[in-house]
Amino acid sequence: RVLRVAIMGLGSYGTRVAEAMQSCVKAKLVGVISGTPSKIKDWQSKYGIPAKNCYNYENFDSIKNNPDIDAVYVITPNALHHGMVLRVAKAGKHVICEKPMAINAKEGQEMVDACKKANVKLLVGYRMHFEPKTLEVIRMRNSGEFGKILFFQGQCGFKIGDPTQWRLNKQLAGGGSMMDIGIYAINGSRYMTGEDPVWVTAQETKTDPEKFKEGVDETIQFQFGFPSGATASCLSTYNMNNLDRFFLDGEKGFAEMWPSTGYGPIQGRTHKGELTQPVTTHQTVQMEEMAAIVFDNKQPVVPVNGEEAVKDLKIIEAIYQAAKTGSKVVISL
Ligand code: NAD
Questions:
Q1: Catalytic option among 93, 99, 121, 133
Q2: Which residues form the GFO/IDH/MocA-like oxidoreductase domain (predicted)?
Q3: What is the ipTM of this complex?
């Protein structure tokens, strides 16, 4: 059975997902939801989308009556995810939502609850959970090849451009670099170590308060402690390039991935040599796997459900609190 998907939000990432879906076998782009009629027209002709599967932000609740769409993939600015997902759930369609799932844990939990109530799946666009080299490192860790895990380092960031974009608007982004790119270090620290953090300390630096206004973090360094005693040291930034690196250290070996989460080929090595798993288009594999999760109840190696995404949001809140207060904050997930 093919997962028939409507994409909501035809921006840069929505376009990337649409292109990647052209190579899918188990998932198909069949509909769009957009506020821009000209984009809808372009997408209709490019992807052969029938008029009956095109919606705008006012009328998309009527997707409920459309038997030809199984799921809606929400790819709008962060702060809009919550309201949109509640409406999609109410319309009885499965939901795929981009990261960060919401701008705080409370809204995230409401999304989880709404999807549960509507008996629809809620999946979050954590594409790295399906990336072959990442999965190999996780396999090696699970089989004990690194020995006891001691330390993780995650450095995630880029120098952001246009100061007027929504990513630098607290109302639409919910924060700054942490919401957008730092979340990869958070999520990565969890899937690389196989544990959830129990405490965090954090330090914020802001070199350009004009560009990065109140509530929009430019650079935050944060440290986690895990139940096993392992620790992590991470960096999230909107003001430095070349930061896309994971390092995992254990008693018997290590893994280094650089790039670790970018779209391009992920590269890495362990104490046993280069990681040679195939290069994939992340979004193609993600959508194939998500179709199997929705229809076959397939359990991915690393879960991509709403509950897992709420954990990342709780951790983000703890990081912000730790950065603000300068104290060690206990995390309870
Ligand atoms: P974008 O600005 O390119 O696209 C956002 C789209 O939302 C645009 O088409 C815009 O018209 C639409 N939109 C609807 N209502 C809007 C409003 N009120 N204000 C502004 N835009 C509005 O952004 P993007 O890079 O496509 O990011 C969208 C989402 O995808 C974000 O949540 C982001 O974190 C996520 N994302 C995920 C990845 C990933 O690798 N998983 C990569 C990039 C972006």
A1: 99
A2: 137-255
A3: 0.99
